[in-house]
Design brief:
This protein has 207 residues and is α+β, with helices and mostly antiparallel strands. It is 27% helix and 24% strand. The radius of gyration is 18 Å and the shape is elongated.
Length: 207
């Protein structure tokens, strides 16, 4: 199957009422495909958010198309969203400690899912100490997150079942050492789909 067929297959999974930023619609996707603007069509499909629920296979088709177009970051994003469909969605507003604060970090954190920091999400070990859990992190709308900055991030836990208690408004903390390097507030916590447990993805791109 060629890239056009993959994009058309993904497009056919989208209802006519779906929309994205700037009133982009599925008609705009068809127009791009008709003019062989494949990369633009892929980007528009990635951005469609309103008026629909992503069906099974949508993100997998987009990931395969992105791979054929050699768009590594786009492929990684589509694979990330594909995994979220099985493992659930966790989004939070995260603020990193500034340089010179309590964190050891002096350089920006890559934003494309390659970081696997530890997180304090309120779980405790038998001795009462925080039970830190691993989750990959994707920074929305940015390639990196610098010390002292804040952004909305998406998290993919290594053990999704241990994150089910989270709800919007809960506080979490990022750890790269014993001292928190950032604090966040949960914005969205959607449980995983009931059909089986997903495997942890292997992100392929850096910042």
């Amino acid at each position: 199957m060629d890239v056009v067929a993959m994009l058309e297959a993904a497009r056919l999974l989208v209802p006519e009422g779906a929309a994205g930023e700037g009133d982009v619609t599925v008609a705009d996707v068809w127009d791009c495909l008709a003019h062989d603007e494949w990369e633009v069509a892929l980007g528009l499909l990635e951005e469609l958010r309103e008026g629909w629920t992503t069906p099974a296979g949508f993100w997998a088709e987009l990931a395969r198309a992105a791979a054929m177009l050699r768009l590594e970051r786009s492929e990684a994003w589509c694979r990330w969203r594909e995994y979220e469909g099985r493992a659930g969605v966790i989004r939070a507003e995260l603020a990193l400690e500034p340089v010179g604060g309590t964190s050891f970090r002096r350089t920006p954190m890559p934003g494309a899912g390659v970081m696997r920091p530890l997180w304090d999400i309120g779980s405790r070990r038998p001795d009462g100490a925080p039970d830190l859990l691993v989750a990959c992190m994707w920074v929305e709308y940015a390639r990196e997150l610098a010390p002292g900055d804040r952004a909305v991030v998406r998290l993919l836990p290594l053990t999704p079942e241990r994150w089910l208690h989270l709800a919007p408004g809960d506080r979490i903390a990022l750890h790269e050492t014993a001292v928190p390097g950032g604090t966040g507030t949960v914005l969205e916590a959607r449980p995983p789909a009931p059909a089986g447990r997903a495997l942890r993805p292997e992100p392929r791109v850096g910042a």
